[in-house]
Structures are given as C-alpha cells and as structure tokens.
C-alpha cells in the first residue's frame, strides 16, 4: 500500500519560503517532482528533503 503524502503548491511555497510563481516555474521545468490529479498539482512531502 502506497502511503506517500502530498502537499499543495501553496503549502510548499510557504514551507520553503519561495514565491508561488517561482514554485510553479520550478514545477514546469521539472525541478520539483509533482503528481497531477486532474488539474490539481500536488507535491510529495519527500520533495521538501530534496530542496533542503
């Protein structure tokens, strides 16, 4: 069973102290791993460790 947890782009932005548009830019470049669910974008919590 997969228990991976996800956060929103807004939450990620606040946690890593980056502007929301910067986070979207990084997502579009493929620098932040994402899971797309319909039109929603979710970022795995593990991505926080990658940026640290």
Automatic annotation (TrEMBL):
Q: Which residues form the Helix-turn-helix domain?
A: 7-49
Q: Which domain of life is it from?
A: Bacteria
Q: InterPro entries under this entry? A: HTH_17, SinI_DNA-bd
Listed name of the protein:
Helix-turn-helix domain-containing protein
- List, alphabetically, the Pfam families matched: HTH_17 (PF12728)
Classification from the root reads: Bacteria, Bacillati, Bacillota, Bacilli, Bacillales
Q: Which residues form a coiled coil?
A: none
Question: GO: which molecular function terms?
Answer: DNA binding
Q: Which organism is it from?
A: Alicyclobacillus mengziensis
Q: Which NCBIfam families match?
A: excise
